[in-house]
Amino acid sequence: MELKRKLQEAIEYVQKEAIPETALGMILGTGFGKIVQELKIEKKIAYDKIPHFPKPTVMSHEGYLLYGMLFNVPILVFQGRLHKYEGYSYFEITLLVRLFKALGGSTLLLSNAAGAVNLTFKKGDLMVIKDHINLQRGSPLAEKGIAEMGARFVDMRLPYDTEICKLLLAQAKKQKIVIREGVYAAVVGPQLETAAEYRYLKIIGADAVGMSTVPEVIVARQLQLRILAVAVITDICDPNDLAPIDIPDILASVEKGEKQWLKLLKRIVAHLQ
Hints:
By secondary structure, the chain is an alpha/beta fold. It has seven helices and nine strands. It has helices at residues 2-16, 34-38, 90-102, 162-175, 195-203, 214-222, 247-268; strands spanning 24-27, 39-46, 64-70, 73-79, 107-116, 126-134, 179-186, 208-210, 226-236. It has a five-stranded mixed beta barrel with strand order 5-8-7-6-9. Helix 1 (2-16) crosses helix 3 (90-102), helix 3 packs across helix 6 and helix 4 (162-175) crosses helix 7. The longest helix is centred in the C-terminal third of the chain and has 22 residues, at 247-268. It is globular, with a radius of gyration of 18 Å. The protein starts with a helix and ends in a 5-residue tail after the last helix.
């Protein structure tokens, strides 16, 4: 009952702020800020004002729930996500997904920054996540009391919505935007991988690696949400030629990819309501 109570208190707080039911939602990954500039914001709530919502501690994750119009389509935007390496529980990390569902959500768009294990990728490329590998040593469905929140044994054959993926790929082709398709491996972090770990990720079938998204997807599937997830490639993880971490370069790569993502969003959001 404890988890259900916390969720209900969060829902009631947001509902009192008069945010209407909204079918489309988006969780912004590291460095994604220009999307907010395109949003005509009507409501803005700080995460730390919402009961039981933790505050992000990572640079560029501002920690706001935004409601407004994106290309004339109503949308809820979660400006910043939570990560396991910040010390939060999986319930806390995925509370924003449960809140979105309670506010009428049906389609959730996810973005993240990821390192390329597939060496044919380039910095700034977009990658549609077609499947994932959970290496975070845990699950948001394995917490005490979670059975009260929905099905425990969730089918993950098709975690990402194939029809939305097709729509995105078709629009990318029309716009002549290069977009990759691949498998995303989620690790805990926050340290980056060793050369041996990158070799391992390649062997098990990963095309890119990051520290987020998968817990959100698992809960979204439990709640029967449609999901589209896009990664921006920020660095090339060649185990034979690893470069030192360069945060400004990573953010520059995200900015490049986000420009392309915005062009595609303008074409597809009207079809996602």
